[in-house]
Request: fold
Amino acid sequence: MATRVQFENNCEVGVFSKLTNAYCLVAIGGSESFYSVFESELADVIPVVKTSIAGTRIIGRLCAGNKNGLLLPHTTTDQELQHLRNSLPDGVVVQRIDERLSALGNCIACNDHVALTHPDLDRETEELIADVLGVEVFRQTIAGNILVGSYCAFSNKGGLVHPHTSIEDLDELSTLLQVPLVAGTVNRGSEVIASGMTVNDWTAFCGSDTTATELSVIESVFKLRDAQPNIIVDEMRKSLIDSYV
Amino acid sequence: MVTLLRKHMNHQRPSKRHGVPILRPFLGFSSFARTILFSRSAPAYSLSAFTKSPVDEVEEQEVDMVHADFGFFDPKLGDFSGVKLLLHNYLDNKPWDLSGFVDLILEQTTDGTVVKLDEQDEVGHTDDDDDDDAGPFGVITALNLQRYQELPEFLLEACTEETTKKKLKTYLERQAGDVGLLVSQRFVNCPYQLVPPLYDALFDEISWATEDEELRDSFCFKYYVLVTRIFESKTINQSKANLKGDDDFSDSIIYTKPEDEIFREMKNYKEKGLAMVIDASEVSKIREKLNCLLTEC
Reply:
């Protein structure tokens, strides 16, 4: 189910939150209605953690993560790092990395299996991404934009990319990611997909300006209409327990 | 905001500074600003006079002028995201239906102006590109208060003094049909030369609208209300609401938008926090004064 939400009159939900299959991070300082929307959708299933990164609220654009791990920029403070390590589930590896491009959320787009990265990312960072997040890494651009983390959002079921992406690019990306992709907009025509929305395998949160058409496109490409969160999370829990044995 | 300006500047010659030409020194409308201007020994034309950070010797001697043409356009629905960005802080951080408000402004195509870069002469753009690249720099419009209900509630909440609160209430409720909400917002470093023509255009459009049969009733304004931001000295004991800054100067009030100082001088004002009500008959005087202020040295 896709839900419309607003952070302090701002429709850029993907800037102030980060949603994965194992946890959800939200920025501090927003109104209670913002948290309550997340908590009502997610509280039973995954932890919703309030945090800041580097003292800022733009956490969605600074960090990158999936169910296996979370990558934080070098500007993250020690207290924030500790807070995240304590609050997130044990199976999630929280790692602070030293990368010149510190807005990791703008440079890396990932789901649980594949990641697309900014073409100028360091080699060591690429290896760390593959290690911590457990994904295969591809350096790509989207519609000529190097900030792949901003202009596309994808989950394990589907993805939404910048509206000006050509058909050939769409096919190529779809083959790399192994999920269906569609070129579209969010928040009434905004091209910056990942800042306007945040998504995981069973739910999505979009800015309140998102039109009904955009919302229906999102629900169909991410297959949210008949998603059952409990099944997905139970499968993950089983695999996590296996790893202890 | 800064990103938006940089995008525009890429269409012009590349320059070290991100700014538009200020052909005259920025006129100080408060005595604080005037003292700052006159205390500078560097020529006021150099953009470095307006930045407080230390500047290299070399850069100070080069004056980078970027030529920009601004156009005034009627509001249209494609301007939604730009106008929303400009009005983002209109009512502080209070959650309200900003999108609805912006829609209301954009529907009123006959009355209101959006300021954008006028790029049509340079490159043959299609209309699709214009909406993406030419985001609005400023917007001005006048809305009939009866059409929009949430704003009066906010203003009354922000009021702390009882007497002016009552006066404001009469304007906002009983006489709402005659009151126009003047919405004027622009990016912080927009050149001031744009402002008098902008207000002229608005008041002209209002008077033309009153001649038009259909819209006549909603545009016969007797009063205008404006909401704006000021900086008020902490040492002065006036009850201002949550919107004051903390600058401590000899002048008690610094105006973010210089025309607000003119509005305050108009006789029939009630200044409450940051809402001012002015009489519509003063409009012609206001226009004259705006023009005078720009030409005075």
About this structure: The mean pLDDT of chain A is 91. Chain A touches chain B through eleven residues (CB under 8 Å).
